[in-house]
Amino acid sequence: MSPAGERRSWWRDAVMYQIYPRSFQDANGDGVGDLPGIIQRLDYLRALGVDALWLSPIYPSPMRDFGYDVADYTAISPQFGTMDDFRALLAAAHARGLRLLLDLVMNHTSDQHPWFLESATSRENPKRDWYLWREGKPGRNGRPSPPNNWQSVIGGSAWQWDERTGQYYLHSFLKEQPDLNWRNPTVRAAMMDVIRYWLEMGVDGFRLDVANCFLKDETLRDNPRRVFGLRPYDRQRHLYELNQPENLDIMRQIRATVDAYTGRVTIGEIYALPPGDTALSAAYYVGGEGLHMAFDFAFLFSPWRADAFARAIDRWERALDPDHEPYLWPNFTLSNHDQPRAISRYATARGEETLARARVAAALLLTLRGTPFIYYGEEIGIRNGRIRRSRIQDPFGKPYWPIYKGRDGERTPMQWSAEPEGGFTTGAPWLPVNPDAARVNVAAQQDDPTSLLNWYRALIALRKREPALRAGSYRRVSVSGSRALCYLRETAGQRILVALNFARNAHTIALPDEGTWRVLLGSQQPEEKALEGGALTLPGYGIVIARAVS
Questions:
Q1: Where do the CATH 3.20.20.80 domains begin and end in the chain?
Q2: CATH assignment, 3-108+185-460
Q3: Is the distance from CB of 461 to CB of 356 less than 8 angstroms?
Q4: What are phi and psi of 338, to 5 degrees?
Q5: Which candidate, 392, 375, 290, places its Cα nearest to that of 332?
Q6: What percent of the chain has pLDDT over 70?
Q7: Which residues contact 241 (CB under 8 A, 6 or more apart)?
Q8: Each residue's pLDDT tens digit, 266-311
Q9: Range(s) for CATH 3.90.400.10 in the chain?
Q10: In angstroms, rounded to a whole number, what is the distance separating the alpha carbons of residues 183 and 181?
Q11: How far apart are the C-alpha atoms of 82 and 232, rounded to whole Å?
Q12: Is 209 an active-site residue?
């Protein structure tokens, strides 16, 4: 597809919305969200203004990692419904103009997947080479030691000993998540068949889990050590199981498979350490006919400072080199299912100040050049839940408690109303609903023009109305100090100024040039107000989005 064609692709103009299905809406009262529940809430999502829904995994799974351990790539977990329910969701979403993306977890399967079960029966099994089985090194007491020093993300060696066949298999994550051998062309072909299966059904694209992990060093070299790090995993430089040069070839193959179907999209999760390296890593996977987009997670780790966000944006813009290859496209997200919610990361002792920060963050997310991703509940200000140790579900939360409490806090149920359990379920929810659900919920904010929900709606509507906010270039405007961020979004016929104050005190900035700017949306400034005089004073956490009119 040509660069010009890429620029017109729907996903460039879209606002994406991530749904964690277990926590969105439970329709049958078993305490776990499901596909019929999502169908019930499609009108809400359409009214919010989003364009596409990304569902975290809904495949059959033992749920050791809550769906990221897939036991069948072409079926639906009974916890979430049936294949008929999925087809109904797909049809209902499309009828409302909403596209549907699936999460594909292809670095590893569940150890209950038929492929692995067959692979583990003997060394001679035809599927043995579908996974990374290897001999151990000579060890103590006559028992082999792991083939190399690679560490699992969850802790301990990345190699699991199998007594029956006398070899180790690789698992980058849980031992119940064995890594596939992507150097085996039969594995690649099987995975391309999985992709085609869902595309033929009408799915609009995929988010690819840990897309830069697929290929490992062919000779299994030891990773160099790092001095510092909380976990053994963090005390290595991951040179040989991440970002192997040939991994881009796999992304090109996936892209070519998807591009055979009109109007579909691929988005890669690029796992990088430290977080500051994510822009360069992500940009690598969208160049040279790679993926359509790859996540840069810098915002998930940025402190609450205007200059920190500005640097993250500049790194992404430089990495994608828009002047050289303008069809490369960024994306931004504030929260997801693996990291604490933004409103909790940026919380202060004063609730009204935290809400003001949430408004600034939303304005940033929805006015930048690139595709924005909203995590469910972000639009109403759901905070991270506080999960007692006895209620922890996430396996990643247990080894390092209380230093790291896992990911359950960002996965608590959606807060729909002041009804019991936040209107999420009539049963006992799989994770506790946040105690503030009685006042922080969709019903309470629905008709309140000052609510965070309606602020998100207004920003999304503005983005859809103004071509410069969807497709314009990004140019940062220099301001004094580190408290405000100001930038221009420009097309041939339109200039829009975005000015954001990240501090509680007022801040004056110089307008880009003489002339008149008309306010389109602002947290304090009335809409349609004309700005003149060459300077603009933003109150604490003030927001102004204005169009040049002369």
A1: 3-108+185-460
A2: 3.20.20.80
A3: no
A4: -110, -10
A5: 375
A6: 95
A7: 150, 158, 172, 213, 216, 217, 223
A8: 999 987 655 556 777 888 898 778 999 999 889 999 999 999 999 9
A9: 114-170
A10: 5
A11: 41
A12: yes
Distances (CA, A) of 70 to 112, 152, 266, 479: 8, 18, 19, 49
Residue limits of CATH 2.60.40.1180 in the chain: 473-548
d(CA 328, CA 388): 43
Q: Which position has the token pair 């993926």?
A: 291
Q: Both tokens of residue 222?
A: 């030891």
Query: Which of 269, 394, 408, 410 does the annotation list as catalytic?
Result: 269
Give backbone dihedrals phi and psi of 111, rounded to 5 degrees, phi first.
Answer: -75, 0
- Residue 499 near residue 538, CB atoms below 8 Å: yes
pTM of the model: 0.96
HSE-up of residue 376 (Cα within 13 Å, Cβ side): 29
Tokens of 137: 């090194």
CA 447, chain centre distance (Å): 29
Alpha-carbon 535 to chain mean position: 37
Q: Do residues 529 and 509 touch, judged by C-beta distance below 8 A? A: no
Distances (CA, A) of 331 to 15, 105, 346: 10, 20, 21
Closest CA to 304 of 86, 486, 41, 483: 483
Domain 473-548 fold: Immunoglobulin-like (2.60.40)
Among 209, 317, 408, 466, which one carries the catalytic annotation? 209
The pLDDT tens digits of the residues spanning 441-496 come to 999 999 999 999 999 999 999 999 999 999 999 999 988 777 999 999 999 989 99
501 phi, psi to nearest 5 deg:
-100, 120
Residue 355 CA: distances (Å) to CA of 182, 302, 340, 525: 46, 18, 16, 18
Give bridge partners of residue 545 from the DSSP assignment: 498, 521
Rounded CA-CA distance 165/124 in Å is 10
Instruction: Identify residue 368 by its one-letter amino acid code.
Output: L
Fold of the domain spanning 114-170:
Oligo-1,6-glucosidase; domain 2 (3.90.400)
Q: Are 121 and 156 in contact (CB under 8 A)?
A: no
